[in-house]
Write a structure and sequence with these properties.
Layout lengths: L13 E3 L14 E2 L9 H4 L1 E2 L11 E3 L3 E7 L10 E7 L2 H15 L4 H21 L6 H13 L2 H11 L15 H9 L11 H17 L6 H18 L2
Parallel strand pairs: 2-6
Antiparallel strand pairs: 1-4, 2-3, 5-6
Length: about 240
Amino acid sequence: MSDNIPPNKYDDSFIRASDLSPLNSRNARPIIFHPNLEETNIGQSLLSASIPTSSSSSSFLPATSTQLVTIPQHTSANDHQPSEQAIITYNPFVQGLMSQVAQVKQNKLNESTRIQYLSANTAFIIFLFHNFPNVLQLEYLEMYRSMQDNINEKLFVKGVKDSLKMNTICPFLIEKIDATLFMTYLVSLKRADGTYFTFSCYDGKRSAIVHLISESSNHLSNIVRDALSDMLVSLKNHCKR
């Protein structure tokens, strides 16, 4: 190690990034274990970074244990790509930081709001299952059908709720969802006498769905967002009547 590198707690545990040789012609990609790896989808819970493999590289990494694993190359929760092998670098210090990040992310909503969103999204998925089953991912559609055939309605609702894993799993296909479908669901929610609830009720349902999409690493196109916003303005006027 060069003499001009300032001393620190990692002095005796640094290796060059170039020492992490790739398993094939691609560059090695050190990846850090997520603290809750065993409970989450590995494709969503690993933090990856491209590291130069040239022998002239002056980059350094903390020397840590490595392990060979196979990881899916997902760009979103609904994207399915072939898996490949990569070098896994385990770093307890960074693992602790990632755990803190996960906690901060979770705390952006209080517990009561998270539960309200989960209930709202469960109702939305059940609405899709009964009225627009073609927009659901096949694996979830088959699972919901199996549950409906074998358990009572109360357990079916619980099964759908559990499948969302506290708003982190999106069972529907984003590309098949548009503003009209969202609004069809919202206007189906009325009082027993056929009148609309207050606008805040519908805006809360919208926020819950957007939260589910975001937390599952998906996103709505700007076109859908803009169209939905315009429709909500119109719905707000109906709620005032």
